[in-house]
Design a protein that fits this description.
By secondary structure, the chain is α+β, with helices and mostly antiparallel strands. Helix content is 57%, strand content 18%.
Length: 269
């Protein structure tokens, strides 16, 4: 009975202690809760307003998403530190731990940071955009996605190529879609025994009759090279980016048909 009475007194003492502590701590707890609620609302509002401003100013969509994420998580970290400070927890130690962790992560992800920096450069300087056809790092394809670490290309054979932005931003990039029109550069080899003027007339008629070749920019046909085995003729004609592949194929196909009709053969390399 005496033991029960002692236990009951201890329970009463602990209950009184926790109740007094809760009463003393409740203003901080309530203040921290209100700060958290208001902070979450403010972060959403700031993020929404900043996104609308960037869209209105026609900022690159990839950059909008990246900057929105930076703003969102940056403000969340600030809010977290403010809330724990409101609760009376020392934030300086937390900041030191956060800094050390950030340094460790940065050292272990040097390659990823290089790709990250490359992605920022690509987004800011815009050497290409979504939908452009580019050649880079030995791959040719249509840009289907520009992420902060990698860029994705879709090749003609329906393969997706992932190129890290670090090497992409530091390497050579050929943008075939930057200009509205593009010039063909086709080489045709014939032997010395064939009348070159006849061949040039045939090719010129092909170029003049193709409706997808821009005639305002007159097609050019000239001798590019004389070798031991034959003559190399260069065919340069301007067309739109959309018709480029079709025009190149059409010129070669028409040359084959007309050469066969006139008993003219191509020269091997």
């Amino acid at each position: 009975m005496k033991q029960l009475l002692i236990n009951s007194n201890l329970i009463d003492q602990y209950s009184t202690f926790f109740l007094n502590a809760l009463i003393d701590y409740s203003p901080k707890l309530i203040g921290a809760l209100l700060l958290l609620i208001l902070g979450i609302w403010a972060i959403r509002f700031i993020n929404s307003v900043s996104r609308k401003i960037m869209i209105k100013r026609e900022v690159e969509p990839t950059l909008i998403k990246f900057l929105s994420d930076i703003i969102f998580w940056g403000l969340r970290i600030v809010l977290f530190i403010a809330v724990i400070s409101k609760l009376g927890i020392e934030s300086s130690s937390f900041l030191a731990i956060l800094g050390a962790a950030g340094l460790a992560v940065g050292l272990s992800l040097q390659g990823s940071l290089s790709n990250f920096a490359g992605g920022i450069l690509i987004i800011l300087f815009k050497p290409f955009k979504l939908g452009d056809t580019i050649e880079a790092q030995g791959a040719i394809g249509k840009v289907i996605d520009i992420q902060i670490f990698v860029t994705q290309l879709l090749t003609d054979s329906n393969e997706v190529v992932f190129i890290p932005n670090g090497i992409l931003s530091n390497g050579k990039i050929v943008n075939y879609s930057e200009k509205a029109i593009r010039r063909t550069d086709i080489n045709i080899r014939i032997s010395y025994q064939i009348n070159i003027q006849v061949v040039k007339n045939i090719i010129q008629n092909i170029l003049d009759s193709n409706p997808k070749i821009i005639q305002d920019q007159k097609p050019i046909l000239f001798v590019r090279e004389l070798t031991d085995s034959g003559i190399t003729l260069a065919v340069q004609a301007w067309t739109t980016n959309e018709d480029y592949k079709e025009v190149c194929a059409s010129i070669l196909e028409d040359c084959i048909i007309n050469f066969n009709n006139n008993k003219i053969s191509f020269q091997d390399e």
